[in-house]
Design brief:
The protein is an alpha/beta fold and 305 residues long. The chain has helices at 3-28, 112-123, 142-158, 174-182, 235-247, 276-292, and strands at residues 29-33, 38-41, 47-48, 52-63, 68-80, 83-92, 98-104, 127-131, 162-172, 189-195, 222-227, 252-257. The chain folds into 2 domains: 1-33; 34-292, Alpha/Beta hydrolase fold, catalytic domain (Rossmann fold), CATH 3.40.50. Strand 4 and strand 5 form a beta hairpin. The chain is globular.
């Protein structure tokens, strides 16, 4: 075989291998988002455990100037009191023993903005589960939601990447009320962040108790985040609740954003707000969890979310 024939053979082989490489890359790279610096890759899995069915899984990469993190997300079903509830989870992709958080979405449901927030919390070093508590009713009883939250804890405790002694709770709107309500009652939680919650809502058949009536049972720190112009959960009630916490020597922190309305973290279209206030409030939550759950994954103090 002369030199020209050999050269042509080499070029054919290189071209064939290049075609295979492009085909592989197109299968592995699913999508990208230039605005957020987030890329998606990996595939679909389905596995069954004693209590949960995982229905899909993906891996996401977050990159920014201060921290690069890979996370894994998983959609599962949680069984609680003979009912099956979908839930969305996210966790750091790297092996570890991470703190975990149960996130309770607002009365408007699990909007896209909450999924993005769960992903960001995972990128910041937390395993997070967000159960869809309105699956069967827009206004389920406290008992029903409490049972689901406990099953969510049970799921987290079985994960190999979770430190079951470092569990937190956060919630928004109705989820803020649930945070105030369940922190005193569910002792597995070591801390919590209540977003524009309702400390004095209760006294009905499905909500027999008010969170404020449980202050004497609260033994863990709580951060409350609120807007001064919240017309749904008015700020005087939050100040009153803070005063009652203080009177009983319960540790709390309160962050009030002047001029912000109810639900300011999620836009009218259901997306996660990228406003200055929203970014700052997110950092307040993560900073509080970092301090109270003693996590130090990577330094994000000056990071833009």
């Amino acid at each position: 075989m002369n030199i020209i024939s050999r050269l042509l053979l080499v070029l054919l082989i290189v071209g064939f291998l290049g075609t295979l490489g492009c085909a592989y890359a197109s299968d592995a790279f699913v999508s990208s988002n230039a605005d957020s610096g987030m890329s998606e890759a990996a595939g679909i899995t389905c596995s069954v455990t004693d209590n949960e069915l995982s229905v899909s899984e993906k891996t996401l990469g977050f990159e920014n100037a201060d921290c690069t993190a890979q996370i894994k997300t998983l959609k599962i079903n949680i069984k609680s009191e003979n009912l099956t509830y979908p839930a969305y989870t996210a966790a750091p992709a790297a092996k570890g023993d991470y703190p975990a958080v149960v996130l309770i979405h607002s009365f408007k449901g699990f909007e896209p903005g909450y999924e993005k927030m769960v992903d960001r919390m995972a990128a910041d070093g937390y395993v997070v589960i967000a159960p869809f508590w309105q699956t069967y009713s827009n206004s389920p009883s406290d008992a029903e939601v409490g049972a689901l939250v406990r099953k969510s804890i049970a799921y987290l405790e079985k994960r190999e990447d979770v430190d079951s002694k470092r569990l937190g709770l956060t919630g928004f709107c109705a989820g803020g009320r649930y945070t105030m309500f369940f922190l005193p009652r569910i002792k597995e939680f070591k801390t919590g962040v209540a977003w524009y919650g309702f400390p004095y809502t209760g006294g009905s058949e499905i909500q027999p108790d008010k969170p404020a009536s449980l202050i004497d049972q609260l033994d863990v720190p709580i951060l409350m985040i609120h807007g001064s112009r919240d017309q749904t959960s008015k700020i005087p009630d939050i100040y009153r609740y803070a005063g009652e916490l203080d009177a009983q020597n319960k540790y709390f922190e309160l962050k009030v954003y002047q001029g912000e309305p109810h639900g300011f973290m999620i836009t009218k279209s259901g997306e996660l707000s990228e406003s200055f206030v929203a970014q700052d409030a997110y950092k307040e939550m993560i900073g509080f969890f970092d301090r109270t759950l003693k996590n130090s994954s990577c330094n994000l103090t000056s990071r833009k979310v």
